[in-house]
Amino acid sequence: MSGAVAQTGVPVQSHVQGRRSSLTRSRIRAAWLFIAPSLIILALIAGWPLARTIWFSFTDADLNSLSDYEFIGFENYLANYDGEWLGLLTDPDWWHSVWNTVWFTLVSVSIETVLGIIVALILNAAFPGRGIMRAIILIPWAIPTVVSARMWNWMLHDQFGVINDMLLRLGLIAAPITWTANPDTALWTVVMVDVWKTTPFMALLILAALQMLPSDIYEAAKVDGVHPVRVFFRVTLPLIKPALLVAIIFRALDALRVFDLIYVLTSNAKDTASMSVYARQQLVDFQEVGLGSAASTLIFLIIALLTVMTLAAGRVRLGEDPR
């Protein structure tokens, strides 16, 4: 009897595995069928403009002759004319905008992450009016960026702004400060406004992760008398790490593309220009479609490279356990 079972066991197991693989293939085909319309729409909305931008970066097109341009290769990026190197990669204004963008991203995202964790921990605690506080905290994030930037621009005005008036009354400053016009304070001002607006976004994502944590772990830690700070660093932080990395990636991608906040607060000032502001200046103000497209292409490549590096460093994989 045991021999018969042993002899028939392999075919039965192979048959079961075959049915599972067939079911898996069917599910994969169904998944592709469902997401195909979204991929097609995404290709039309995002893929085609991206391809056109990359193409224009290899041409000498301008706004006055979009139908009459020539292919010039990599000259918009780097070219040698009579022994002199020219192009986007030799422009000090471009590299200054890159530094401004990277600095803004690192500082703002770091502050927003720390404040987002603190706010999320507070909102995760049980206290009267917690639901109302969760709604109120989202108000800065709900306000459009241009509206909030214009609002803060008036508040930071050197003559009519409420910020200078309040600091003067408190005796913290001796004279009004031009917050957005002074190179020493302009970028820090932009960071402050960005932190005010987007910290609720980080707090919301982190709060969602905290809501999913099992309560029995904290009950056991409380029984053992473990200090809350130790519980946070040894239990909470490792458990919310995947969600925290996703929140940081999303926020960093948004910060690297920053345009409206800097443009409204500081306009076309070179000292505070981001990569997107630089690209807009080449495209619109100087009407250099080829050079502006080259700058936009480099922005896309920089963001894509940093995203891949962050995903690899954090070992975040969709549909996989990050551990």
What distinguishing features does this structure have?
single chain; 323 residues; mainly alpha; MetI-like fold; two-stranded antiparallel sheet; disordered N terminus
Describe what you observe in this structure.
- Helix 5 (145-155) runs parallel beside helix 10.
- The protein is built from 12 helices and 2 strands; from the N terminus they run H-E-E-H-H-H-H-H-H-H-H-H-H-H.
- It has a domain at 93-314: MetI-like fold (Orthogonal Bundle), CATH 1.10.3720.
- The two termini are 45 Å apart.
- The longest helix has 55 residues, at 2-56.
- The chain is mainly α and 323 residues long.
- The radius of gyration is 27 Å and the shape is globular.
- It has a two-stranded antiparallel ribbon.
- It is 71% helix and 2% strand.
- Residues 1-10 have low confidence and may be disordered.
Would you spell out the secondary-structure blueprint of this structure?
Layout: H1 2-56, E1 79-81, E2 84-86, H2 92-124, H3 130-136, H4 139-142, H5 145-155, H6 162-170, H7 183-211, H8 215-223, H9 228-256, H10 260-266, H11 275-285, H12 289-314
Antiparallel strand pairs: 1-2
Helix pairs in contact: 1-12, 2-7, 2-9, 2-11, 5-10, 7-9, 7-10, 9-12, 11-12
Structural class given helices, strands, pairing? mainly alpha
The description of the largest β-sheet is: 2 strands, antiparallel
- Elements, N to C (H/E): HEEHHHHHHHHHHH
CATH superfamily of the domain at 93-314: MetI-like
CATH level 1 name of the domain at 93-314: Mainly Alpha
Put simply, the count of helices is: 12
Instruction: Report Rg.
Output: 27 Å
Q: What is the correct CATH architecture of the domain at 93-314?
A: Orthogonal Bundle
First-to-last CA distance: 45 Å
Give the number of DSSP strands. 2
Q: Catalogue the unreliable spans.
A: 1-10
Strand order of the largest sheet: 1-2
Q: Average the pLDDT over all residues and give the rounded result.
A: 84
The helicity comes to over 70%
Could you tell me the strand content as a percent range?
under 5%
CATH topology of the domain at 93-314: MetI-like fold
So what's the overall shape? globular
